[in-house]
Amino acid sequence: MLEFKNVLLIQLGDIGDVVLTSPSIRAVKETYPQAKVSILVTKPYGCLLDADPDVHEVVEISKLRGSLFTRLCQQLAFTRQLRQAHYDLVIDLRTGDRGAILSFITGAKVRIGRPGAKNQFWHKLAFTNTLDNLEAAPPPAHPGADQSLRILRKIGIDTSDTLPRLFISPNTRSIAEVLLKEYGLPAESRWVTINPFSRWKYKEWDNAKWGEVIDRLWETHRMPAVFIGAPEESAGCQEIIAGREGRAINLAGKTTLGELAAVISMSSLHLGVDSAAPHIAAALGTPTVTIHGPTDWRAWRVVDDLHKIVILAMECVPCNQMGCNDTKISQCLELLGADKVIDVMDQLLSTNRPA
User: Fold this and answer.
1) What is this structure's pTM?
2) Which of 16, 106, 155, 247 has a 20 to 30 A CA-CA distance from 207?
């Protein structure tokens, strides 16, 4: 086996994909303990991996902006940065064109990738080795993490620990603690984080049912709900908690992604729909209850004593469509009552009380 000293993983997926890549970073480090392992992600997702002890450097790429001349200068500067790093192994963990181009730009002696979603011939020119027919690992391997690990196994890189893990820096945690204290939640108190929204509306649950969850959480457990999310989700969160001041606070859009992760790490439980937040929570060791509709959780999540999935028992679930017949409306979520989610929430909060 060749000995590599400077390795770059390219993960240009969404937030959840970045979280699920952490076992791949660990696998490379276990296989090449002396190597510097860096990862290239889309900005601002890199803050999720900044504190990972196995990461040498997080490289972020942004969308080019400005005039044609400005964008050209930005691209040249980034190309120079990649070339000057002198990577000797580059692995693109996805099938997109941009990752293939960036792999080629690095000039690494060994560049590993896949043929591409449309089997583009030029992917074979961008990589020194293209791999296909990648086999999924059987349980107990984490199915979401295995999406990246399966390409590494093909070249002799693996780990027995496939659970995604994230780390929070002391500075980021301190910032989150100050923010929570401003909203009346000292670090020693207990609360539940909720992320009710997704990039895709057909994955979302009814706002009124989230209101029922908030009420039960307060009346039974005397715990407030902390709503988290992106800036564009803040108004929707505010609609849910309207009239429930004191029982819920809205932090959507008020944190960086790293600070959002810190808030989740300090919560007693995370509730949410199929989105990135439950992946973040699970990787931080926070118990989770995740509501799934048409999407198949078995391809991405692990269910155990700390992590539960709530679905409505229908013959068509999961259908993996964008709502019923691709209408963007999912009856399996429309018909899912709050009681089922509340029962699972109560169970986890009752069995995972702090000492």
Assistant:
1) 0.95
2) 16
